[in-house]
Design a protein that fits this description.
42% of the residues lie in helices and 16% in strands. By secondary structure, the chain is an alpha/beta fold. The chain has one domain: NADP-dependent oxidoreductase domain (TIM Barrel, Alpha-Beta Barrel), CATH 3.20.20. The strands form 2 sheets. Strands 3-4-5-6-7-8-9-10 form an 8-stranded parallel barrel, surrounded by 4 helices.
Length: 318
């Protein structure tokens, strides 16, 4: 049995109730997966998105493509991918086999991890070629915490370049993604019209990085679509199996519910490499219920302990 909450943990949990508020409004999808509006984009997305990195690293081209096709059939049509050098293995090549046949069924997301504009556009061209399409629904300025903002935000930087590509129709929406250094997101939000933001968010890393507290309220006021990633703490690279989680298995569903219970969040992108993971997460999405006050209090205690164990595992906080 869990130890009773300390007074400090209780006060932290109580504070989280104010932070978390009400989950975003959902509508029922024909496939049974709830859907939410992605900020100001006007697009409804399933509350479960497919993160392709684990399959890209650990599955063959044909098996990965088969998994993506099955996901679409189940109602998961939001696919988050990126090129090989950002840690996604063969994911874009796998997904390209699906995109060329089912482009109209897919909300396609890719990333550029370049500070300079010319380099970013060259990478965008390569991404689209590999994905076998002439446009992406959403392109993230990836891992913002690693980029030099003076370059990225300058007149020859990635942000002006991707916004120009949006005007040209090669991108529908421009976003920011990142795992660390939350303060950089506020700087970009103050100067650029961003459509979507994807951050590392889970009930443990809240106590280390705190995107949901430090950054997301400002983004929500600007009607930026909010996407949760690293919901299970990120891939477990030490596990020889297919797991995409460093979080203890008994807390996975609570972590899923935590992310989707945050106010204004549109979906949780979860990496999957097996049919078992896919079907489990689809069922959790179909049965999703926001966390109760009691759930939140219990997770505050667990989250602080995990945060102390993990530390700043995604990189520097400041």
């Amino acid at each position: 049995m869990e130890n009773p909450l300390t007074r400090r943990e209780f006060l932290t949990a109580a504070g989280s109730l104010v932070l978390m508020g009400e989950a975003a409004e959902t509508s029922a999808g024909e496939d049974g997966i709830p859907r939410r509006m992605l900020g100001k984009t006007g697009v409804q997305v399933p509350i479960l998105g497919f993160g392709t990195a684990p399959a890209g690293i650990r599955r063959s081209l044909s098996i990965g493509a088969g998994l993506y096709n099955e996901a679409i059939d189940l109602g998961v049509n939001y696919f988050d991918t990126a090129p090989t050098h950002t840690g996604y293995g063969r994911a874009q090549a796998q997904l390209g086999q699906v995109v060329r046949k089912r482009r109209k069924e897919i909300f396609l997301v890719t990333k550029c991890h370049e500070a300079g504009g010319e380099a970013a556009l060259r990478l965008l061209d390569r991404n689209l070629k590999e994905l076998k399409t002439d446009y992406a629904d959403l392109v993230y300025v990836h891992s913002l915490g690693d980029l030099d903002l003076d370059v990225a935000m300058g007149k020859n930087g990635i942000l002006p370049a991707l916004l120009k590509a949006k005007k040209e129709g090669r991108i529908r929406f421009v976003g920011l993604s990142g795992h660390h250094r939350p303060h950089k997101f506020l700087k970009v939000l103050a100067e650029f019209d961003i459509d979507v933001m994807m951050c590392a968010v889970n009930f443990a890393d809240r106590y280390t990085y705190g995107f949901e507290e430090k950054i997301w309220p400002t983004a929500a006021r600007k009607k930026v679509g909010l996407v949760a990633m690293k919901v299970f703490g990120g891939m477990n690279y030490k596990d020889p199996g297919m797991t995409n989680s460093i979080m203890p298995a008994e807390h996975l569903q609570s972590a899923f519910r935590y992310a989707l219970s945050l106010p204004n969040v549109s979906l949780a992108v979860i990496g999957m490499a097996t049919r078992e993971e896919l079907h489990r997460n689809v069922e959790w999405a179909k049965r999703f219920q926001p966390l109760t006050a009691k759930d939140k209090q219990a997770l505050a205690s667990v989250g602080r302990r995990l945060a102390a164990s993990w530390g700043p595992h995604f990189g520097p906080v400041a």
